[in-house]
Amino acid sequence: MRNTVIDTITRQASLNKEIFIITGDAGFGVLDTFQERYPRRFLNLGVAEQNMIGCAAGLAMTGFKVVVYNIIPFLLYRCYEQVRNDICYQKLPVVLVGIGSGFTYAPQGITHYSVEDIVIARSLPNLIILSPADPLEAEKCAEFALNSRKPVYIRLAKSGETALHRRKPKRIDRPCVLKEGKGVAVLFHGSVGIEVMKAVQDLKERPLVVSLPMIQPLDFEMLRKSLKGVHTLITVEEHFAEGGLGSLVSECVVQERLRMSVKKLGIKNEFIHAVKNVSGMRRYYGINSDSIRRSIREGFRREK
User: How large a percentage of the chain has pLDDT more than 90?
Assistant: First the structure.
């Protein structure tokens, strides 16, 4: 997905002379083509992340469409004040491309994990949050972000994710139904989608499976139309269970007074000391395909 987003931005840069990329000592190899083609529209500002965001804001105020690229802890955590005040407060259309969602950088530990970024980003007014599940969604997210008049945060993994869609979705600002079903609905975002699709493969029960690449703002009205005949919602995310998509969906269900139960599959809100690879971490926190499948079957048993 990472390469897809950068390739899309590079293609668009030939049509839009205002596209500018800033990185903070990251993206070596990934950003090389853009740098070679557009050297006057590329800056590596080194290990000075707050300055990176300030420069992006300044360039955006002069008319550039600025893309800031870095791993998420150095893009959003270390620079929270600058993202808040310089970009979101001024509603500047900067694109924040964050790499390393969830456990992407396992087993490097909590300093490199991005498991609370959505709850942080949700706290920022004016910030659109995108979390594509496959390269097809990632391409649409990049196109959307480049045309947005608001700041956009794109949350990405970097593991050569396979396509979950049969064809590129027409829109990413609405829920994307991957499998029709009823009774139980599985809602997810991001690269953990591969676990969801494995979970429902050859499953006797037929749950509704929905990818939500746009988390903020969430088009819950459109999602609600897809949930006819559903009594149980299961949210799956490689993020803290509290504060992410699961919490957002739960809030909407309560506000709309819907008669649905919500089960949140996510990471326990704690500092993570386990040392495993990505698949091991997913299994450890119950967001792997086997755990998802068990939750789906439990949801269908409630019908009986």
Answer: 95
Instruction: Say if 2-156 and 176-301 have the same CATH topology.
Output: yes
Q: How far apart are CA 72 and CA 290, in angstroms?
A: 28
Q: Write down the pLDDT at residue 302.
A: 79
Q: How large is the average pLDDT for residues 153-181?
A: 93
Ramachandran region of residue 220, left (φ > 0), alpha (ψ -120 to 50) or beta?
A: alpha
Distance CA 263, CA 260 (A): 10
CA separation for the pair 247, 95 (Å, rounded) = 25
Query: What does the buried/exposed string (b/e) look like for 150-169 if buried means 16 or more CB atoms within 10 Å of the residue's CB?
Result: ebbbbbbbbeebeebbeeeb
Strand partners, 211: 176, 188
Average pLDDT over residues 240-248: 96
The residue ranges of every structural domain in the chain are 2-156, 176-301
pLDDT digits 0-9 by tens, 20-65 = 999 999 989 999 999 999 999 999 999 999 999 999 999 999 999 9
* CB contact set of 170 (below 8 Å; sequence gap of 6+): none
Cβ–Cβ contacts within 10 Å for residue 96, how many?
28
The model's pLDDT over 270-290, given as tens digits with 9 standing for 90+, comes to 999 999 999 999 999 999 999
State which CATH number among 2.40.110.10, 3.40.470.10, 3.40.50.970, 3.30.1330.90 fits the domain covering 2-156: 3.40.50.970
- Whether the pLDDT of residue 304 is over 60: the answer is no
Residue 290 phi/psi, 5-degree rounding, is -65, -45
CA dihedral 88, 28, 190, 150 (to 10 degrees): 20
Rg (the chain; Cα; Å): 19
Cβ neighbours around 23 below 10 Å, total: 24
What does the pLDDT average to over 150-175?
93
pTM for the predicted model, two decimal places: 0.96
Q: Are the CB atoms for 265 and 236 separated by under 8 Å?
A: yes
